[in-house]
Request: fold
Amino acid sequence: MSNSNTLMTSLFNPKSVCVIGASTKPGKLGYNILENIVKYGYPGRVYPVNPHYQNILGLKVYSSVSEIDDEIDLAVIVIPAEAVVKVAEECGVKQVKNIVVISAGFKETGKEGAEREKALKDICEKYKMKLLGPNCLGVIDTFTPLNASFAAQMPLKGNIAFISQSGALGTAILDWSFKNRIGFSKVISLGNKADLSESDFIAALAEDVNTKVILLYIEDVKDGDKFIENLRKTVRIKPVLVLKSGSSAAGQRAAASHTGSLAGSKIAYETMFKQFGALQVETISDLFNYAKVFSTQPLPKDNAVCILTNAGGPGIIATDACERYGLKLASLNSETLNNLRKQLPSNASIYNPVDILGDAQPERYYTALEALKNDDNISSIIIILTPQATTKPTETVLKLIKLVDKLDKPVTFSIMGGEQVTEAKKILSENNIPVFSFPEDAVESIAALTRYTFIREKKLSHRKFRISANKEAVREIIKKVLNEGRRTLLSSEACKILGFYGVKTPKVYLASNSDEACSAATEIGYPVTLKIASPDIIHKSDVGGVALNVKNEEDVRKIFIGMVANAHKFFPNARIYGVEVYEYVEKSREVIIGVNKDLQFGHLLMFGLGGVYVNFLRDVAFRIVPVNTQDIDEMIKETRVYTLLKGVRGEKPADIDSVIKTIIAASQLVQDFPVISELDVNPLFVYNKGEGCMAVDVKMSLYI
Amino acid sequence: MSNSNTLMTSLFNPKSVCVIGASTKPGKLGYNILENIVKYGYPGRVYPVNPHYQNILGLKVYSSVSEIDDEIDLAVIVIPAEAVVKVAEECGVKQVKNIVVISAGFKETGKEGAEREKALKDICEKYKMKLLGPNCLGVIDTFTPLNASFAAQMPLKGNIAFISQSGALGTAILDWSFKNRIGFSKVISLGNKADLSESDFIAALAEDVNTKVILLYIEDVKDGDKFIENLRKTVRIKPVLVLKSGSSAAGQRAAASHTGSLAGSKIAYETMFKQFGALQVETISDLFNYAKVFSTQPLPKDNAVCILTNAGGPGIIATDACERYGLKLASLNSETLNNLRKQLPSNASIYNPVDILGDAQPERYYTALEALKNDDNISSIIIILTPQATTKPTETVLKLIKLVDKLDKPVTFSIMGGEQVTEAKKILSENNIPVFSFPEDAVESIAALTRYTFIREKKLSHRKFRISANKEAVREIIKKVLNEGRRTLLSSEACKILGFYGVKTPKVYLASNSDEACSAATEIGYPVTLKIASPDIIHKSDVGGVALNVKNEEDVRKIFIGMVANAHKFFPNARIYGVEVYEYVEKSREVIIGVNKDLQFGHLLMFGLGGVYVNFLRDVAFRIVPVNTQDIDEMIKETRVYTLLKGVRGEKPADIDSVIKTIIAASQLVQDFPVISELDVNPLFVYNKGEGCMAVDVKMSLYI
Reply:
């Protein structure tokens, strides 16, 4: 990650900055940016560049970057799009390390803009300059401090880094953050991501001592592999919260027309975030609610929550929310219960939720929290305060903040109300204790923090697998298919390929005439199944292209002739290779194993309930390839069909190990042969434990 | 609803109020309540009652209620719990119409309190007094105006009625409402609901001209039937939004310890709310976010939304949210598109989301909204404004409010940001235009409003059904079972009962010895299925109590003897009636029809995917009995198995009509015989269209 280190210093903490397109006119971006740099105390050397002016804000103005007699770490370019490429070249010649292109008028505007962006990118590559943008808001580092953006203000200093693909969202959030006392370490506006992207920044921020939590708003990911690689490393060190928009079908269209980005498959994104440890959030408010907690609180040990409240109703609401978000109520240990019993009024509820009653004064809150503080059964604490007749909100939080500070458990407050509690809420915020208006938000944030505990604890041990496979034979089949100009394999070919990876499939022969079909059937043994062999007929059973349980030679012959004639008649343009003769296979539990190639993240593996109902029951789980055995294990357990495989209602358990082996085979196959864009094993019959499984129907397609 | 009318006048707008337990000491509830009544301008006659004082707040104090020489519409009682019953009796003698018991110390405190509450309730019944509470905050009507509560302030006047089972939640929400400019028509604190409950108030509020939307926070429903009856009438007139807490397992325990209420089955509650038109919300913040929109906006015609934005990112976020909450993006009509094309800059996006770009000034917002206003394809509009370099938030909303006011479509704003947009948000709120910080909330609220449009439009036509059934014969079977001291019916009995309601079941005979079993098998015809006949052995197939496909007399005899011996051995205490001999039935698609009695809402009907996988696939839908054919139709369509019944992958469609008839039969059976607490038809084999269905396995239990 030496690149990250370079980024951290020369972009966020440059020794010198020039603003190309600096202006004397307040209100113009070229003025605002320069003013922000100067006004917010950037300690390095600043060089405005503009051929039309001599002096701006007391600084000497240069007519071009080449005239500056200094090394330039960062050039901010804010001139009309048409002129950007030429100026970038000047920067390159000058050996500028980073350029931030604020100017719009690139890919987002259409073909001409896209060409301009390509030229800009080429220049940066040629001179090894890093490029942020174009079409962005700029970059802010509150610690340097450097505000190389046209944001209206300098954000508060804090430990949250915010990376946003939407400039407008960035400005709105900054404005909003003052009111909500949220502080940032860095704010990065990605713009069109011609060069630097989210992947570069999460890697850089992983090493940033001033950043405790990384927030990401993106509409797409630029480079799937790089993102995955950097994400998995970063989440071992600090949490990455992601709001990914453009996931709905309509949202994808909107995103495409907005930045020309390809939003990619929703399932692939969700799978990727989950598998590699990003915390995906659903709404902007969740993003910042969580950030409040992540940036200030220690990680919980487990998912056991204690609720401390002065009102029953909100306590119940919080309890419901715990269940909804996957938390459980802690069982308080006996010492805690004794302490609570001794010190609370007799009609208080000492069991979780701990209800210290509507007349609770600051002392009672304190006593209760003291009692809870060292209980190892409690992973995190949610304190609810509602203003009742004799409640003293301000005094209560003043009494509690010192104690909360010393806790090794995360704490969030829920304080409902308006004027009566404004001061109390302000005090908590100022003391870095998260406070929410409603208990559900307090619970949801703790749930997110707890998810991160589990992400951090997840073993990284890749129990790597490597199964022996006859790759040469597979290569031959694929070559043959491609040579014939096909993309879809025949079932017999697909079965053979899986066979080379150790997966059991029915015996199958391709017969191009009825004699061949009969001898194949004799070879296999009756009864047999016949299927029309054509790469162009997909849903064979829907068009009379499948005959099950064919019992003798006479029937094989009759069916062969009828099936081929029928296929020619209804699909005059289809390539008909004859009929495939299959071994009869005993029916069993049906699961599906599928692989589909996603444009962004490569092969997406699917496992779930199989059979004809797969589409309407949708009991499936996904992972990005490559997977390790732990991934496979978790994937299987995510589905409901897992219960079935374990054996329900007195059934014997199924051979889950053989399912795992089949998934391993599928995963390795598509890694070895990335040309395989689609693999569909449905059904895979899974027999009782020890008896293996059988890939009964296999479809495979190639993508060149 | 004459009772409701009485409530509306004598409780909310009484001619005279006495406060029993009035106090001279500020800070005491008896003082606060009296002060609230006087201070907030109650126009009727006020009588403080307390034997220890002469004068409070300039009012003459009476030593007891009987001394007051006036008719009393409302008595507010705020004295120690021990004295309440006696005072209530005095009120009864005095013919007081309503009492509100503020005092705590009743059911919520345990056995003694529960007895006290019972006595209080009896007194009220005896004297036909209405009772609110005990253990409540009181009641507020902002129009009367009357503040007979110890809330710290008088809420703002508005058209939202808020009914809360939690007093603390009530006070917190009131305090919060000022800051958020939310106004109320009435605030009702239910307390322990010894007499008046949510059901009474939703009926009363249905007729209240000052109330446009009813908000309900409850932990349980007191009387299921009454609630359903009043709810279904009320939602035809105005929306009822419900936050029901205590739904999680832990939440139920917390609720029980809090108010001693039985929270009831989560599924039954959810089903009931949905079926009878309440809008159930998940969080407190949703409750009030929705209320903002419901109280100010017209209903949308349909679910087509138009998004108007000055920023791409938030537009995409809103688009995603539309899909998430069941809304669609409107396709703008050609006239609208032409207008937008003509009047917006060329790089604006005129398709929905309409993106009028970051430099949009008030004029451009106005022009765009003008163009959208009359487009019939648009049901509702979401306007997004993010503060960018040249945005004028205040001027923009000032320009828009008049136009928004004239629209016949609902509008919500999403304005992100802090100081820069504070004024704009305030102006919108003051003009009764809902504004949210984040686009997702704006979308979610419109989605809730749209759901209410569909609730209102839902036909009330109860296509009643009445099938002929041999009820006498059913009664005989049930009598016999009860006489034998059983609660579980034998399969043969259950099948017979369904048969009397026109449901096809396999032929089945109970055989008490092997000879009887053989003649039954001959009568039915081979092959047959044998099942152990015992009311005490439930999962027969798990314990060797089922033999399928028995082909001849010899096997019947052998199996009979083995099965009975086996049952005696493993279940020495079970009643063994012999073996049931079943007709062999051809397998087909499997669905389940179930009925379970819920303590609160009566029989809960279930339909879904059947077979042994029902528990792990959980593809089921629920309705409260009685159902009409429309309910049944909707219930079936909610499940995924519906797709299967329609015919997937070339299969023939199933006989859905016969499924509907079976559900009707089940529904009518449990109405005719409410003693049936459980009915489980699993599987019901459903054959191809026109070929009917067959209840293959039937379980039935009674509850006395």
About this structure: The first strand of chain B starts at residue 16 and ends at 20. DSSP finds 24 helices and 30 strands in chain B. Chain B touches chain A through 98 residues (CB under 8 Å).
